[in-house]
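Hey team,

Filing this mostly as a record. A colleague (T.K.) asked me to run one chain through the structure pipeline before their review meeting, and I want the input and output archived in the tracker in case anyone asks later how it was produced. No errors, nothing strange. Just documentation.

Input sequence:
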Amino acid sequence: MRLAPRTSRLTLLAAAALAVVAGGAAAWLAASGRAPWSTRARDAGVASPGAIVSEASATGLPEAGQPAPDFVLTDLQGRTVRLADLRGKAVLINFWATWCPPCREEMPRIEAFYTRYREQMEVLGVAVGESPEQVRAFLAQHPY
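Output structure:
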């Protein structure tokens, strides 16, 4: 089956965005010894990436090519953001933290990518384990 040109572009755009984020995170995980496929992780009983995918399939988690499950978040201004409202655009969901070196490193690239393709995509930055005040202070210094 051949995809419509617009769908193909959005798919490629989403894949490229994911590659930017995944590449930076994987490099940092590998360098820090925290990668689930590293020897240290294997010795601690963490499954290999293939086993994780198999487990996901067995538990009914979304498969590649299927729509992501809907979720709702609240942004820093108190507005509700629903994933379903962004259907039709490529959506890059970036889980990050102010203390995370690869997160800080990838942000300018994500910003540049978004600036170039803003009509076709959205970026949702989800700060993990931090208060809104911590995130606001970081973004005041680094306005992404």
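Quick notes for T.K.: Residues 1-5, 10-56 have pLDDT under 50 and may be disordered. DSSP finds five helices and four strands in the chain.
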